[in-house]
Amino acid sequence: QSQLVESGGGLVQPGGSLRLSCTAFGFSLNYYAIGWFRQVPGKDREGVSCINSSGGTTHYADSVKARFTVSIDSAKKTVYLQLNSLEPEDTAVYYCAVRAIVCSSVRDDYAHWGQGTQVTVSS
User: Fold this and answer.
1) What's the burial of 58, exposed, middle or buried (CB within 10 Å: 0-12/13-18/19+)?
2) CB-CB contact of 81 with 12 (8 Å)
């Protein structure tokens, strides 16, 4: 069964760091673009970052640029999102998703999603 599984979320103080993982089971990440999104209750799911399977193309939302870093380990079928200098506004459920080849920040462009991992930034 093909699925994406996120992990690495948790509670962290402002200014702290977390590393999220998104692992593919049952399929390879080759020829996919992998997006990271986040959502808080009552708001739309927001595109955070994206990377293509070669790792040669990355995108970031302006709100996380210079603080978050996306990377891929194709052999492990895992995409990582390093979250640094976390702010309370980063609190959300973080999701990964895949689509064919090209990155997109649009939620509806992705058909295959993980279950999400909660990130809470609070003192």
Assistant:
1) middle
2) no
Phi/psi at 100 (5° precision): -70, 120
Structure-token pair, residue 21:
């993982």
Question: pLDDT digit of tens for each residue in the chain (123 aa)?
Answer: 899 999 999 999 999 999 999 999 999 999 999 999 999 999 999 999 999 988 889 999 999 999 999 999 999 999 999 999 999 999 999 999 999 989 999 999 998 999 999 999 999
- From CA 37, how far away is CA 21, in angstroms rounded? 13
Q: Supply the DSSP symbol for 53.
A: T
CA-based R_g, the chain, Å: 13
Instruction: Please name which of 84, 109, 95 lies closest in space to residue 18, comparing C-alpha atoms.
Output: 84
